[in-house]
Design brief:
Strand content: 15-25%
CATH class: Alpha Beta
Number of strands: 5
Radius of gyration: 15 Å
Helix content: 25-40%
Distance between the termini: 18 Å
Shape: globular
Strand order of the largest sheet: 3-4-5
Order of helices and strands: HHEEHHEHEEHH
Length: 130
């Protein structure tokens, strides 16, 4: 893997998603192993992300809907045009741990995680400062 690898080659898939009308109780089990998931509208377009931090802020607890607590608009990356170095820069700038990867229709087709980026820090340093 290199800083110029396309996200299509390194992204995680398939991706579980949530919808704005789901209750947090419906997606709570997901948070046992993941820190967040993309939120999609009725046309499967990525409109936000719901994270453990968002869940913690829910005023109605587990009865709150995803739409009430999600972070929106979604910060996304495209699968063919974006390389890991760009993903790393965006994650640092936006202070996020994961970014949904979308296709031309804004449908979620994968996710890139900070842990993938972290594994490349020595290589990215050489890439950026070369």
């Amino acid at each position: 893997m290199s800083p110029t690898s396309k996200l299509m080659d390194v992204m995680s898939r398939p991706v579980q998603v949530a919808t704005p009308d789901q209750r947090l109780s419906e997606i709570d089990a997901f948070f046992a192993s993941h820190s967040g998931l993309p939120v999609v509208d009725n046309e499967s377009r990525c409109i936000g992300v719901v994270s453990k931090k968002d869940k913690a802020k829910a005023t109605n607890g587990m009865e709150s809907t995803v739409g009430e607590v999600m972070s929106s608009p979604a910060i996304t990356l495209t699968h063919q045009k974006t390389v890991l170095a760009e993903a790393a820069a965006l994650m640092l700038k936006e202070k996020v741990h994961r970014i949904p990867v979308v296709n031309e229709q804004q449908h979620v087709i994968g996710k890139i995680f900070r842990i993938v980026i972290a594994s490349l820090i020595p290589v990215l340093h050489c890439y950026i400062f070369a």
